[in-house]
Amino acid sequence: MEIKDYGIHWFRRDLKISGNLALSNNLRTHEGRVLGLFCFDHLFLGRPDFSINRFQFFLETLSDLKAELQKQGGDLLVLDVGPKSAYENILGLLTEHQIPHPHTVSWNRDYEPFATKRDAEMLKWFQEKGVRVVTERDHLLIEPHEIFKGDDPNAHYQVFTPFKRRWIEKFKTEEIQKRLIVPPAIRFQFNWSTLFSGKIVLKDHLELFLESNKKKVTIPIPLAGELEGKKLIALFLPKVKDYGVNRDIPSLEGTSRFSMFYKNGSLTTSQVIREMKLSHTAEWNEGEEKFVSELIWREFYYYILERFPRVENEAFLEKYKKIKWGNNKKWFQAWKDGQTGFPIVDAGMRQLNETGWMHNRVRMIVASFLTKDLHVDWRWGQKYFMEKLLDGDLAPNNGGWQWAASTGCDPQPYFRIFNPYLQSKRFDPEGVYLKKYLPELRDLTSKWIHEPPQNLMTHGYPAPIVDHSIQRLEAMALYKGN
Description:
By secondary structure, this protein is mainly α. It contains 22 helices and 5 strands. Helices cover 48% and strands 5% of the residues. Helix 14 packs across helix 19. The longest helix is centred in the middle third of the chain and has 22 residues. The chain is globular.
């Protein structure tokens, strides 16, 4: 059988079909003759902040993608090796059986340090093999290299507000508005069995990963995949007008919950903005404006990570690189376990441990508490979040931690230290959120629950492990000394 030119799309963090630009362009070029491939890179799986639970959500997303591809006449092969080994094996088999090599390999760009290094190496390797490579933009609406100060592409923003102004300026251009248009769907006309004419059976490892990893999962895993992401958008749209207020109240479902779908690329910034029908010409209401601002924060943190990759492991602000953190391991363990004696902190950490998610306002509170009250290195907190969060995503997680620790770009000033008691009273006045995750305090009234005296019935809830007023002063001295 004569095999016409065909392509392979290398899926990574773009686990969807609709709006997947690199995939759709490859399909158009080869009239639907495109194969899907996913490679499990063990260097990535071996990261010290690897999360079993987040990996399960990723696997469920991958399983949903595979089923959808097969429904549309395509296919997804999941291999238990890194990309170079995977393509070496595939090209070797093709040569051995005198089957033409793929004409094109496509993928969507990523901006993390590990990914950019890997992709540069793979691009060079494919070029040496004579395989055409096409890459496209996907999970960001505006890529880091497209935003710079004035006319100098080497002049980078380090403060959010001017970055946001420039982002919105770019957003209104015809070029960016076109990115909100979904490419027309093209049906797949090819699968791996067709390519090899049934001569070779390539072992797919997805079910093995799903089966073995599921045994280690410690929390309920939400439904995953592109369709579930779209359902979330539909649920969020009627609430967006109140987003500016409700997003800060942890007892409400006032946030979008899109973040874990962003992580896998089941949802993207462009898709969400398109579904919300946020015109670049119409006035946005207060909720829409605040929500878009949060989307821009996410793109800002990716911009910073791509422009300054060192931030993954060190303070963005040079003057805070040598802070002498106390790093009391006993306090750190109490923080992780939700046993600090500060109700809003403990509720947040227990929510994280029990569900794999934490409300955004509470993330800021617990991060501030770890760094400013317990004087523990922000990198310890960053790592623990990545181990536990279903939406653990390097750029926003790193950006959020460095913001709270006052070590990042455009951070919370070091002298502005959250008072956990006041934060609790302001954003959970009746203690609804606290009582949900702290059963020891359910008998307390709103008068006492935020700062419970030990002589009341607290059912074994711990006394505060530190004095906030003292730790606040010591934190200020710690930062001033650098």
